Amino acid sequence: MTRISTDIFISGGGVAGLTAAAAFGSAGFSVVCVDPAPPVTEADAAGADLRTTAFLQPAIATLAAAGLWDRLAPHAAALQIMRIVDAGGEGPDPRLTKDFDAAEISDLPFGWNLPNWLLRREMVARLAELPNVDFRPGIGFARMLTRETEALVTLTDGSSLSARLVIAADGRASPVREAVGIGVRTMRYGQKALAFAVSHDLPHTNVSTEVHRSGGPFTLVPLPDRIGKPASAVVWMESGPEVARLAALPTPAFEAEMTARSAGVLGPLTLASRLTQWPIISQIADRMSGPRTALLAEAAHVVPPIGAQGLNMSLADLATLLGLATANRADPGAPAMLDTYHRKRHLEVQARVTGIDLLNRASMAGSPALRDLRARALDLLYSATPVRRTLMKAGLGLR
């Protein structure tokens, strides 16, 4: 079988991998992207990813350069206000509400929210427009051998290729990361997350709301209206046994519990999709790069879904890597370039993983004393205007 050559090989066809394929392809590199699971691009199809992704301001330039933002913008719901509600008193009612308004630091919203299944649909369509991108769904990475000037990659269908740069965008259990011997540090919380969509009578007015009580945040993120009613995406984090209990409830009982857990901020909530669930961990790779290899997204770092940080960290990885590869177009996988990528990203990633880990542990607080302490800390941080604005800029990744 003839071995083809490509500039960039990407293992992983999730949102991060597809974005990387579109970005490198739009920049003129030849790209092969594989994923063993074909992307599900319809909301009602089996296996559809019903989670949503909020793209924060800095990500839009990367999406636009990849030819993706014009496709995505018509479907996006703006996130103008990030609201934090503390409902940690005796009952699940709001006792403290603080709004972080993007207007304090920018003329633009904090970001824009879209369903993950729709992202895959539009990204796959974009790849089909790029003749220099070869997307192979249903095929995965098997093994590779790195040499001084290339990586020789074998795929699960028995085909092989040579690439100057291999990008691992293949998830928290990355086969590529394992193949190059990069270790990871993992923190477990005993939590799981439920993800689903809801409709409600009260409009969300482009406000993303995190309700904190115990077990983790209950997050409502704006979606476009659904069948004429306001809609939101929900991520509900609780202990593993509690998630199992909730997922087994009949729909009316589940709706009553989720409305109570939401502190009633949008009125009664009606379930508008099936439930999906996944375990919550924090994880960080020991390095962001290896021989002829760059780690991207969850292959490099995993964080709990707080503050829309996960994929936006991944797109910051991509922007850095693409900039370096473009400046080193003659050899985009050169060791010196990959060392620079590691240095530019790893310290920032470590800081964000640590910060989100602390926020998640605070959100899990179960005792009344710890919940009172969390509420006082939120009130103190919000009340100092310079601190509030600094926190908002830091959340966006702005200096």
Report on this structure.
This protein is of the alpha+beta class. It folds into two domains: 220 residues, FAD/NAD(P)-binding domain; 161 residues, D-Amino Acid Oxidase, Chain A, domain 2 (2-Layer Sandwich). It has eleven helices and 20 strands. A hairpin with a 5-residue loop joins strand 13 and strand 14. Helix 1 runs parallel beside helix 8 and helix 8 runs antiparallel to helix 9. The model has no long low-confidence stretch (mean pLDDT 91).
Entry keywords:
11 helices, nine-stranded mixed beta sheet, FAD/NAD(P)-binding domain, alpha+beta, 399 residues, D-Amino Acid Oxidase, Chain A, domain 2, eight-stranded mixed beta sheet
Question: What general form does the structure show?
Answer: globular
State the helicity in percent bands.
25-40%
Structural class: alpha+beta
State the CATH class of the largest domain: Alpha Beta
In CATH, the architecture of the largest domain is: 3-Layer(bba) Sandwich
CATH homolog superfamily of the largest domain = FAD/NAD(P)-binding domain
Q: What is the helix tally?
A: 11
Mean pLDDT: 91
